[in-house]
Structures are given as structure tokens and as C-alpha cells.
Amino acid sequence: MNFNLTNILMVLLLLFGSLFLRSSFAAEQTLVIPGKLFGKEVRNPYIDELLHLIYSKLDVDLTIDYSPEGLTQGRAMKALSDGKLINLNWSVTTKEREKLLLPIRIPIYKGLIGWRVSFIRAGEQENFSQVNNITDLQKFLAVQRFDWPDYKILLANDLNVEGNISFNKMYDAITLGLADYYPRSILEISREKNNPTFNTTGLSIERSLLIKYPSAYYFFVNAKDVALANSIEKGFKIAIEDGSFEDLFLRYYGENLKKLSLDKRRIIELNNPFFPSPL
Question: Using CA atoms, how far apart are residues 59 and 61, in angstroms rounded to an integer?
């Protein structure tokens, strides 16, 4: 009886010891990303959940910290290139950015970030219903931030663009007549229209056009941080292969994409001279 009890105790001690050691030496990763926006608890819930999904595939405990500074897109990429403040960012890729930083070349938004539908002033749908090509679209003034790749893409296609309005004033710019349309990703526009944080009162989602150009959002790390890039790529590929990435994407964007009736829109194809050639 004592022998059996001793054996049981030994097995339990070994089991708990093994679990303790495993938890004590579990792999960990801390990512530092640009600071929170608009007082949000999480800067981008989709990105936050995607990163946790990626590292869960590697059995790595992930901690996401925010830089103390709120960084614009341009400043964030510069800080990452300099190895300061942050060790990860996500952004539209360009030839220039891929020279300065190390991209993980898996499209975070499945390449749909270059599919654009626009905010316009309510009551002006008829003006855009008559647009059939780039020449027709040149009659209107778009708004984008000058440090967004999209700004340069529109200019490269001879479209008229206002680039000196701050992000939180762009909706007002349309309402006040400072610009005519505000192209947004098909992944963003429905959520923004229904979000009280953004002042979309007096604006409508344009119903007839789909502006398309080659584009992709990638994760970027410092050019020297090869190990970090490799781990993100490995976990991301596992999530794609087992279907969990598709499940996450559809949970965030599936319903809103259906509402835009993309198959019924006229397509305006734009060139993107800044998009890196496939490897």
C-alpha cells in the first residue's frame, strides 16, 4: 500500500514539475507598435487578434506594447527604420519602404486594400453615376493624406488630390466642399460610416464605382530583425494553411463586404508604379 502510494506521489510530483518547467521556460515575444489612436484600448483589434493568432501557432506567449508616442504613418516607418520606439509596424508596401525595412510579404488584408469605394456628399450620387473612366474622374477632387502611398498613386494616374488635410478632418472636408470624394478601402468604409468617432453626417457611400489598383498591407520590421520576420512569417503561413486566418478575416470583414455590392460596380483601374514587383 505504501509502495503504491509512494509511486503515485512520485508520478504527481514529476507531472507538476514538468508543467512548472514548461510554463517557466515558455517562449515569449514582446512587440512594440505605434501608440493607440483616439483613446482606443486597442489600436487595431483585427491586427491585435491576427498577431496573437500568428504567435499561438508557434506556442509563443505574445505581449503587445504601445510606444508612448502617437506616430503618424511616416514617422512610424522612420522610427522602425532607425530601430527606435517600435519593432513592428504594418503598412501599405512600396518600393521605397521595402528598401528601408524588412517586409513579411503576406497580405494582411488579402490584397483588398487597393480596392476603393468613396465617401461623397449626400445627394451627389448622380454626379458619380456618370463616371465611366479615369478621364471622367479627373473632374473631381479627392482627399488623401500626403504621407499615404495612396496619395501618390492617385497623382500618378493624373487624378486631382488634396493632401494637406489631417485625417480626422477629411470627412468634414467632403461635407464642406473642400473636396468631392474620399476613397477608402472596401474593408474600412462601412465600419467608418457606422462609427460615431468619425463625423460622417451628411456623407454617403458612393454606389456605382470601384477604384482598383495593386496594393497590399504587410507587416514590417527593422531590416536587421530577420529572426522576428521569420517567426511572423512562419506563424502566418500556418494560420493560412489551417484556415484560421480566413475565419478571422471573414469574421471582421465578411458582412460589410457583402453590403457594398462590389459585383455591380463599374471598375476604374489605376496603375500603381510604387508597388514592388513580385519576387
Answer: 7
* Separation between Cα atoms, residue 160 and residue 179, nearest integer Å: 10
End-to-end CA distance of the chain: 69
CA 219 to chain centre: 9
Q: The whole model's pTM is what?
A: 0.79
| DSSP secondary structure string for all residues of 148-209 | SHHHHHHHHTT-EEE--S-GGGHHHHHHTTS-SEEEEETTTHHHHHT-TTS--TTEEE-SSE
Q: Tens digits of per-residue pLDDT, 11-57?
A: 555 555 544 444 445 599 999 998 866 555 677 899 999 999 999 99
Q: Which amino acid is at 224?
A: K
Helix (H, G, I), strand (E, B) or coil at 117: strand
Q: How far is 249 from 46, CA to CA, in rounded Å? A: 8
> Domains along the chain?
9-110+217-264 (3.40.190.10), 112-212 (3.40.190.10)
